[in-house]
Amino acid sequence: MDKRTILAIVLSLAVLLVYQIFFVKPPVPQKGASSQTPAGQIQQDKAAAPSPAAALTKAPAAPAPKAAAGPLTPPRDITVETDHYTAVFSTRGAALKSLKLKGYYRDCHECTEDIWPKIKGLVTGQKASPKPKTPEFVELVDVREGMPYPLAVTFPESGVDVAPDEVFDAAGNRMDLTGTQQKQQLVFSRSQGGVKIEKIYSFDPSGYTLGLDVKVHNLTGAPITQIPQLNWYQYVDPQKIDDSYGHEGPIVSVGGSIELEEVKKLQSQSVQGPNVLWGAFESKYFIASFIPENPSLTNAVLTRDAANMVGVGMKGRKEIIPGGQNSVFSYSLYLGPKQYDLLKNLGVGLENAIDFGWFKWLAIPALYILNFLYGFVLNYGIAIIILTTIIKIVFWPLGNMSYKSMNEMKKLQPKIEALKQKYKNDQTKIGQETMALYREHKVNPFSGCLPILIQIPVFFGLYKALMYSIELRHSPFFFWIQDLSAKDPYYITPIIMGATQFITQKMTPAMGDPTQQKIMLFMPVIFTFFFLNFPSGLVIYWLWNNILQIGQQYYINKKLATG
Questions:
Q1: Regarding predicted confidence, which is higher, 205 or 453?
Q2: 77-81 and 174-176 strand pairing
Q3: Is the peptide bond before 274 cis (omega within 30 degrees of 0)?
Q4: 17 and 124 share a domain?
Q5: Cβ 452 vs Cβ 402: under 8 Å
Q6: What share of the chain is helix, strand, coil (3-state, %, to 5)?
Q7: Residue 121 CB contacts under 8 Å (≥ 6 apart), including other chains
Q8: C or N: which end of the chain has fewer Cβ atoms within 10 Å?
Q9: pTM score, two decimals?
């Protein structure tokens, strides 16, 4: 394989990386923007205009929340504590006011420990004063004052509707489920207009799943029509720059097909379905999802109002309830981390909310192997190094074949150049004579590029696994690398990676004219620039892969020299 072929392969990879860097930009913090809200943190803004509940549905009879006077009956909070989360429900709408995930901390750059004071202390002998750390648990609920809470149930296009700010009755103020596996229920009830509505939450302390039954009692003698809609409300800061590495907003599975809705493109109302398997509001690492009992009769209603409140509603089946009887609408809820095995166990394809891309078939096995290795070494950085070594061992024979082929191609370069000069006006003859030269010396021009082509999918599969796996979020390696899912804060590993890339480039047999060789020498600089903002876990993978490649090239070059 000549230099042009290698250059084409490398540049093809570079184009893909350029797309990730320049067209898929990571978020840039907005300085001085008072309205910016960190993802997952409850915001209270007294100046925010109240958002009418009617703006999220088509129900004309739905009353607007009473932002000024408030409900006639003051609402109460009921706290549910488990080993995995702390949930606060409000009797206003019998809805979720807060849900904090234990063990998952929100991004806090001010809380990151700086390594340089420690290094300075080692040099000067002075002990550096540690920076105060104040991490906070991830908060799934993000609403503004006056907005309805998530998990409010309305009945648009029904005989009797319930506004999201109506106050329900409930017993107790706290439910402690820590240290137990016993399932318990929290029941809210309200009677209005001849209809009694009960919302029954069922808690499984072993995980992040909840059950929700909405029971509608017809207290009148005449039949009524009810169409339930379970709603998740979320405030979205209009000035927040989207993280293109991860989607934040509504996501719906319609017949197994994943439909993403960009918040900025969502105008008024969008309806997906029927046959909605699940609907959710997601961020890069967390998801608030609900699974309807009857997907074939369920539509997803996605809305956004003038106050930047996004609603994800599961609109259920139409049901006629005879007088004196009741009906039950059931949902399963998953409110927690986007951890692949937990989502897959739900059996509805919720794991597809993790964007593993085209190379999912490689990303998922890589993730399983990483988790397996982590169980032994208890450090995902070391697990990445071990996995990289395993991948290198698997591809070792192909690498040897590639290096040997390039070395043989290098030996043939003078003869190929002579052919180009001899038949410079006849490209067909040059091609024929070159192939004859390859056959004579038993050289396969494609054997040098085959290992590269095979390893590109492996690279992108592992890239997706490292980019979107919550296991690596805030997972430390050593010293200054305290989050393998984030970039190296001091760019140390990308620079070292660039140096190793340069060494491998110099050790590779040089082919082609001097101009092409000079262009190839710029590739390490380009790769270093690409990797500056990549997750440090991915940089560690590429760095260690380069180190192993240097060792392999040294071994092959020495073997060929002595052979």
A1: 205
A2: parallel
A3: yes
A4: no
A5: yes
A6: 35, 25, 40
A7: 127, 128
A8: C
A9: 0.77
